Amino acid sequence: MYYLHNQVETIDQCASAIQRRIPDITVGVAHGQMTEAALSDVMHAMADGDIQVLVCTTIIETGLDIPNANTLIIENADRFGLSQLHQLRGRVGRSTRHAYAYFTYRPDKSLTEIAEKRLSAIRDFAEFGSGFKIAMRDLEIRGSGNLLGAEQSGHMMSVGYDMYLKLLDEAILEEKGEKPREPECTADLNITANIDPVYVSQGEERMDLYRRMAAIRSQEDADDLLDEIIDRYGDPPKGVLNLVDVALLRAKAKAVHIRDIRQKAGEIQFVLTSMDFSALTRVSEQPEYKNRLQLVAAAKEPTMRLTLTKGVDSLRQCKAFVEKYAQALNC
User: What's the whole-model pTM score?
Assistant: First the structure.
């Protein structure tokens, strides 16, 4: 049996708790920070039946074939993506034995609408060969969007179904007489923000991580994804951390009606879909922004121009300004 506890810091305590509850079984532990030799020994013991319960992280997601494992329990399943849940579920039922997969979450937790849809989909599509249906449902749940913005990541070829969903969504809103949804914020900063092939060698895995980083909307999302990345690949380089920070910046910026962030020479331009002049005034009056922030009156859209402080990371300055602007809007 696999018991997925995706927190390396507490995985040993979790294994000990299971061992105390069921003293007659042997419990093992597997995670990405173990040495190759130690991990190999644990997996061989699991395959030989010497270990009955393997407390593990998402390291078991791919490339693992242990036919005698027929039960999977996942803690906090609401934190995982739909395609990832499908991959994890595929670790059991790899023989003629009937298999069971349990996706759990804390009883006192209020699930988001997206999390409920993911768990419902993984429950509904349980038959053999349902991977394509899972992928289609995943697209429906996540909706359309680009990958950290075209300016940030380069132009990518459109996926037909993704574009179809976007056009359909716009058409439905138009028929209802509703305004189109506010566009995602794009960011073009002079920083290193990428997943180095040396860090993640498989192209498909890199693309999946790019997609999941683009879906980050909160610090909790970022922390969960970083925990998994560290477990699977080790400490992330600066480029990966910057990607996560850019995703958080874009989410925060969109919430305060900023649609584009662009670095040019020694300044940052913030293009807004709408502007609160009093909030901008409150920010510009703060000591750190005096004589550095101005409204560009000649621009077609409301645009704020921030002069960068030399020697300070531009991403850090962007995050600080957007946070200050958000606070001013709530005053």
Answer: 0.55
